[in-house]
Write a structure and sequence with these properties.
Layout (H helix, E strand, L loop, with lengths): L9 E12 L1 H11 L7 E8 L2 E8 L2 H4 L4 H5 L2 E9 L14 E5 L2 E11 L2 H10 L9 H13 L5 H9 L4 E8 L4 E5 L8 E5 L4 E4 L2 H6 L2 E6 L5 E5 L2 E5 L10 E2 L1 H6 L5 E2 L2 E2 H15 L6 E4 L4 H12 L7 E3 L12 H11 E3 L1 H4 L3 E6 L6 H12 L4 E6 L27 H8 L3 E4 L2 H4 L9 E2 L27
Parallel strand pairs: 14-23, 17-20, 20-21, 21-22
Antiparallel strand pairs: 1-4, 1-10, 2-3, 2-4, 5-6, 6-7, 7-8, 8-12, 9-10, 9-11, 12-13, 15-16, 18-19
Helix pairs in contact: 4-5, 5-6, 9-10, 11-13
């Protein structure tokens, strides 16, 4: 079992250079910057004038490419990269992306961030037509759909556009054909996708702007929801025919937890949004306390915002083991508490005898929160007032995160007061649903379905969601 936080499914990266260059090396560093979005596997496909070279492996980026595989991939004009977090049960090595497909009009490499809600239906239709699937991901469904449409289309971008008419849900895509690099964001804009240009004129696309910084590309802008970007012959063009066909619904958890604080998404800095969440919490749920501390990493900026708004001093209350990633695996419930202690350890001199406001980004099942609270008490904390920079989880996510099946969410079985007793805090307050929609300073359109909001795109077919069962997602 993974730690008691939700996880993003993956991060994507793409690069186009007019000259043959070390696109594999640049993609390697771009994926490193996106490592927080996926820590189970990594892959890079290099396109050298139509010749595709692939390396994919399990593990962190540094582990997957530990033996000089980027050098073995060589130079090229185009590269596509992917990092993935997969839920338990999805350990099929064939699921590692980017996916590479051969067809009689050429090759295609595809990296996908998100989750389709009609993947089962499309997969059944494709299998009835003779398609043979090698993965359990809906990313392969997308690739098959694009290939089918490519066989009857004049161009790969036309095939992508036709595919967008059929696939429903969350998808940011980066695709390489033999001659083109294509980036796509779904009409709702569930997942982020941006692009930039280096001083050498190299085009770079990535899930987050921090990956552009990693390869010294100047951020230009985010792709609009529904937009298709095509780079060919060193020229960039856009297809906006799918733009403004659906309301904007960026996943609000990009700001609360998923994205790196130094990233800018749709015009708002992630750090600024998290501090704003903390300020909201200070107004909604004030506390009489001596210090404010955050649970690293995504609770830190919200804790700073709470401190600035409340006037209660901000302090660093935990030391985080930097050698353990977000998806650290504990072998079982009995030993989970030791895993939490290895990952986070209170600084006794800071918390001893103090009334503490503790800020975290979420509570899923409550197990990890309880262990963190226990560790603070053992370190001598006098009172603990927990504040959460998101509303309570009450519904599963079908758009590319592993928010659990309804039965496993603590907020569906207990009141806030009961949860406070279960995890052992003196008081507990969550960010309101209304203020969660204002993290950019105004209501710019967020998906808040997991907090009890409406599903922007209705889940179809088999909708049971349980991260301890085999999923079908990309």
């Amino acid at each position: 079992m993974s730690d008691d936080h939700i996880h993003e499914e993956c991060g994507i990266f793409g690069i186009y250079s007019k000259n043959r260059t070390d696109v594999a090396g640049m993609t390697y560093y771009g994926l490193y910057a996106l490592q927080h979005r996926g820590q189970e596997s990594a892959g890079i496909v290099v396109n050298d004038d139509g010749v595709f070279k692939v390396h994919k492996a399990e593990g962190l980026v540094g582990e997957a490419f530990a033996n000089g595989e980027t050098l073995k991939l060589g130079s090229g004009n185009i590269a596509v990269g992917h990092v993935r977090y997969a839920t338990t049960g999805s350990d099929n090595i064939n699921n590692i992306q980017p996916l590479v497909v051969n067809h009689h009009k050429g090759k295609m490499a595809l990296a996908h961030n998100g989750n389709l809600v009609n993947a089962y239906e499309l997969r059944d239709e494709l299998e009835e037509k003779g398609a043979i699937f090698h993965t359990t991901t809906d990313s392969e469904v997308i690739s098959y759909m694009i290939v089918q449409n490519r066989l009857k289309s004049a161009s790969i971008e036309e095939a992508v556009s036709l595919t967008m008419d059929s696939i429903k849900g969350a998808y940011s895509l980066i695709i390489s054909s033999p001659q083109k690099l294509i980036a796509v964001r779904d009409p709702n804009g569930f997942r982020p996708l941006c692009y930039g240009i280096t001083k050498e004129g190299i085009y770079v696309f990535a899930s987050e702007s921090c990956a552009l910084d990693a390869v010294h590309a100047e951020f230009v802008r985010d792709l609009r929801p529904g937009e298709i970007a095509v780079v060919e012959d060193d020229k960039l063009r856009f297809d906006t025919s799918h733009c403004d066909t659906a309301p904007r619904h960026l996943c609000v958890f990009e700001y609360i937890y998923f994205a790196r604080p130094d990233s800018v998404i749709d015009g708002t800095g992630v750090s600024v949004a998290r501090q704003r969440a903390g300020r909201f919490l200070a107004k909604e749920h004030p506390a009489d306390a001596d210090i404010v501390i955050g649970v690293p990493d995504s609770g830190l900026e919200a804790a700073l915002g709470f401190s600035l708004e409340s006037g209660i001093p901000y302090a660093i209350g935990f030391t985080k083991n930097k050698y353990i990633g977000r998806t650290f695996i504990a072998p079982g419930d009995e030993t989970r508490k030791y895993g939490v202690s290895i990952k986070l350890n209170p600084i006794k001199e800071v918390v001893r005898g103090k009334r503490i406001v503790l800020i975290d980004d979420s509570i899923v099942r409550g197990t990890t929160s309880r262990h963190i609270i226990d560790s603070l008490k053992e370190a001598g904390a006098k009172e603990i007032h927990m504040r959460v920079s998101s509303p309570p989880f009450v519904a599963p996510c079908y758009y590319g995160t592993d928010v659990d099946d309804t039965d496993k969410l603590i907020a569906n079985h207990h009141t806030i007061e009961e949860i406070a007793k279960i995890i052992g805090v003196d008081s507990l307050g969550y960010l309101s649903l209304e203020n969660s929609k204002l993290l950019t300073g105004k209501d710019t359109g967020f998906c808040t379905a997991c907090f009890g909001g409406e599903y922007p795109v209705k889940p179809l077919g088999a909708v049971k969601k349980d991260k301890f069962e085999k999923p079908i997602n990309g």
